[in-house]
């Protein structure tokens, strides 16, 4: 089995092989794109501008959210159930801004911070089913090799690894054959991947988001419960000073390249072959 053997080779081969065929993300049109986010906000923080550009270009974007983010509040009056509802509405609002409708949000429903404790085979199977159902031209997901996966919270590590395991499984019909036999989900090989939360040294795609900076900020600041002061004492709206500080925080996460604000990615293809 040549391809099965090759699947064991290191990622390093991949970067060298695909570097010559990296697309301009701003020019992608008419594709189906599946973005996997650990929490309802990473999609806006990593890629809100890029998503806005992709939506403007008529791509079909679906956002798959691993967890309901029901733990991230210092407010002593907050409950997990209430926070999950707030986070869902914030994610819907943020995606409306960038052009992704609420019926394109796919909630996997796991608890915040607990992804590593979900039974691993069932988690891969769940995501494999999503990939086989939506048959994406491009998957966007957390880079499993980046620093923030090593030190960041459990859900980022797990989402990064699990999505890749599911991409591999989705291609081969003998993984989770019940999906084909009982649900009619045929195998699907993901042709292209855009990893986000990448190391600067690993980035090979820089998307200029100057023209959609307002959408990037509005989408990110839809998550009002995750910024000060809402994270300590929840309130659904912004005071002007607080909003200015939050905008500065979001902008500080962006990279600059050739005088433009950019979101960075690592593009890869033929993952399962090399
Ligand atoms: Zn996160």
Counting DSSP E segments of at least 2 residues, the number of strands comes to 8
Strand content: 15-25%
- Element string (H = helix, E = strand): HHEHEHEHEHHHEEHHEE
Main sheet makeup:
8 strands, mixed
Note poorly predicted spans. 1-19
The named CATH superfamily: LmbE-like
Please tell me what the overall shape is: globular
- Ends distance: 13 Å
Q: Please give the count of helices.
A: 10
- Name of the CATH first level: Alpha Beta
Give the proportion of residues in helices: 40-55%
- What radius of gyration results from the CA coordinates? 18 Å
Structural class category: alpha/beta
Structure description:
It is a single chain. The model is unreliable at 1-19 (pLDDT under 50). The protein has helices at 2-6, 11-18, 42-56, 80-98, 120-134, 147-151, 154-171, 178-183, 213-221, 240-252; strands at residues 32-37, 60-67, 105-110, 138-142, 192-196, 205-208, 255-257, 260-269. The protein has one domain (29-255, 264-269): Rossmann fold (3-Layer(aba) Sandwich), CATH 3.40.50. The two termini are 13 Å apart. The protein has 274 residues and is of the alpha/beta class. It has 10 helices and 8 strands. Helix content is 41%, strand content 17%. The site of zinc ion has 4 residues, from loops.
Topology diagram in text:
Layout: H1 2-6, H2 11-18, E1 32-37, H3 42-56, E2 60-67, H4 80-98, E3 105-110, H5 120-134, E4 138-142, H6 147-151, H7 154-171, H8 178-183, E5 192-196, E6 205-208, H9 213-221, H10 240-252, E7 255-257, E8 260-269
Parallel strand pairs: 1-2, 1-4, 2-3, 4-5
Antiparallel strand pairs: 5-8, 6-8, 7-8
Helix pairs in contact: 3-4, 3-9, 4-9, 5-7
Bound molecules: zinc ion.
